[in-house]
Amino acid sequence: MRTLLIDVSTAVMYVGLTKNDVLTDFSIRIAKRDHAKYMVDRIEQLIKRNRITISDIDQIVVGIGPGSYTGIRIAVTVAKMLGYTKNIPLYTISSLYFMTSGYEGKIAALIDARRGYVFASVHENDKIIMDDTYVLLEDLKDDARYKKAKTVFIDERHYEVNPKHIYTHMKKVDKIHDLIPNYLRKTEAENNHDQKSDNQ
Question: How many domains does the chain have?
């Protein structure tokens, strides 16, 4: 069983390849706004490096957010394209869990959402304690579920991926065309539009 893992919820583009429960190879790329140019190429490089073809991939798991609006949209679009055109089963998972699935103990996974807000979740020993949420960091600190958790702000130095844990929490996509990212918040453009509408 070969699995392609994809997540682009932060400045870290993560592409991994597993065989059964073992992560056999992975590639990361650090960027901000140009992941779209390199996503497919990185997948192709990873596959070629391991002397297989896309047809050898048995399933795809994609992190659907929350996180970077552009990043998760790219990841989901590419995963849907590959899943549909190559007839590969597609699964989704929280990007917060995906990128911290390799840590042990009680983990608070955080992604900076700017202006004092974070995307956050808490898990411990494969159990989800707090579902993905968009919250002020100061308010999160007062949440009992957050107490005594190791905080991991996901970036190029802070992430750990464990396929076994990912397999436990991934969810099958039955209608691939209906899959949309988990943005958790409106974009700035949407907020500006809503404010203009309210003022009219």
Answer: 1
61 φ, ψ (degrees, to nearest 5): -120, 125
User: 145: closest CA among 109, 91, 100, 92?
Assistant: 109
Closest by Cα among 180, 42, 18, 38 to 102: 18
Stated pTM of the model: 0.91
Judge contact between 119 and 111, C-beta under 8 A: yes
Angle CA 54–74–184, to nearest 5 = 130
Range of the domain at 139: 2-186
In angstroms, rounded to a whole number, what is the distance separating the alpha carbons of residues 154 and 164? 20
What are the residue ranges of helices labelled H in the chain? 35-49, 69-85, 95-98, 137-140, 163-169, 188-199
Strands 59-63 and 2-7: parallel
Q: Is the peptide bond before 181 cis (omega within 30 degrees of 0)?
A: no
191 contact partners, CB below 8 Å, separation of at least 6: none
Element (H, E) at 110: strand 106-114
Q: Residues 94-148: pLDDT tens digits? A: 999 999 999 999 999 999 999 999 999 999 988 999 999 999 999 999 999 999 9
Task: Indicate which CATH number applies to the domain containing 106.
Answer: 3.30.420.40
